[in-house]
Design goal:
Helix content is 33%, strand content 18%. It is an alpha/beta fold and 351 residues long. The chain has an eight-stranded mixed sheet with strand order 2-5-6-1-7-10-8-9, with helices on both faces. About 19% of the residues have low confidence.
């Protein structure tokens, strides 16, 4: 039995999870949960025992100094809780960690034990995959579920994927078998610029999460960093004619596929998000238009560790590229083609 002393009774709690590794191209998913934890000032209330789930030769502990005293941080998965205020307060249970090396069924059962004790009503698992998508267009975010009723009520795609899977797919199926509603959201990261960070993909995941659970999320500097990231990739791609030509071919394919859906529901959804932010403004931050970073203004990409300017370096087109542990054979995860994001585009996504 899991005992959660000190955790108050939660209001309409939703569990939001992301795991570093195979299902996290560009670190987009784990960065989204980290953003939620930072903006809403999450408090860690539990951590899974690292000995049970991690191979320390794969995910090594780190040693650091605290006032001259050496300490060790072990790779693990931590849970925190945040309360989102507003007209309709709601609590989020944030799960952030590394894809486990072993005992995946026990790992999922332990997380579901916390979900049960906390009264979680919905589990949303974030992932990111590598795809043939241009960095100059809105990031495709697909939403899938194994529950046909949930697919109908939340306008999601029912997954039909078959093949290798990661912890995102395993946790979603574990939720389904336990009777806990679960959804996976996948962002498609351009495989030719796959190294982390990718603030544009992180922002797209957060925007999709907002729509899914009817919640306003303060963006902080994420929108600015997203625009700066795109500008940096634009500049570097322009210096390589091979990359520039490849990006243009992706743009043409994307625009042709989306032409019938370039207006209507996608525009209405983005305008509704804008009105929500203008009327109320996100908690803890100024009101503003939620954007996926598709603009062309901003001068640099911040390096969070050193504050130096750091434009990303795009890789040459190569469908075999791997990044952030993501495997392009499964594109960084394992779900099938799914419902689209606020930009009304879709990608094949693994679960």
């Amino acid at each position: 039995m899991i005992e959660l002393e000190g955790v108050p009774e939660l209001i309409d709690p939703v569990m939001v999870a992301a795991f570093e590794g195979w299902n996290d191209a560009g670190d987009a998913a784990s960065a989204a949960v980290a953003h939620l934890d930072k903006e809403f000032k999450g408090e860690v209330f539990a951590a899974l025992d690292a000995e049970d789930y991690y191979d320390f030769q794969v995910n090594r502990p780190t040693v650091w100094l605290d006032n001259g005293v050496r300490k060790i941080t072990w790779p693990t998965t931590r849970l925190s809780v945040v309360r989102v205020g507003g007209d309709k307060p709601r609590d989020l249970v944030l799960v952030r960690g590394i894809e486990p090396s072993m005992r995946w069924r026990s790992f999922c059962n332990e997380l579901l034990g916390f979900a049960h004790e906390l009264g979680v009503e919905l589990v949303v698992i974030l992932g990111a995959l590598l795809g043939d998508t241009p960095h100059t267009r809105p990031v495709p975010v697909s939403g899938v579920t194994s529950d046909p009723d949930l697919a109908r009520t939340m306008d999601l795609e029912e997954t039909k994927y078959e093949g290798p899977t990661g912890i995102v797919g395993i946790l979603q199926e574990a939720c389904t078998h336990a009777g806990v509603p679960a959804v996976s959201l996948w962002a498609a990261v351009p495989h030719y610029v796959s190294q982390p960070p990718n603030p544009k993909a992180t922002l797209a995941l957060l925007n999709r999460l907002e729509d899914l659970i009817d919640l306003r999320i303060p963006l902080g500097e994420l929108a600015e960093d997203s625009r700066a990231w795109q500008l940096g990739v634009d500049q570097l791609a322009a210096e390589d004619s091979e990359v520039a030509e490849y990006v243009q071919s992706l743009e043409e394919a994307r625009d042709t596929a989306e032409l019938p859906e370039a207006s209507g529901e996608a525009i209405a959804r983005e305008f509704e998000r804008y009105l929500r932010r203008r009327d109320g403004g996100p908690a803890g931050g100024p009101a503003g238009l939620a954007t996926d970073g598709g603009g062309d203004t901003a001068s640099y990409l911040r390096d969070s560790t050193s504050e130096r300017t750091r434009p990303p370096r795009p890789q040459r087109p190569d469908t075999g590229t791997e990044a952030s542990g993501a495997d392009t054979s499964g594109a960084g995860g394992d779900t099938d083609a799914a419902a689209d994001s606020g930009d009304d585009s879709s990608e094949d996504s693994p679960e």
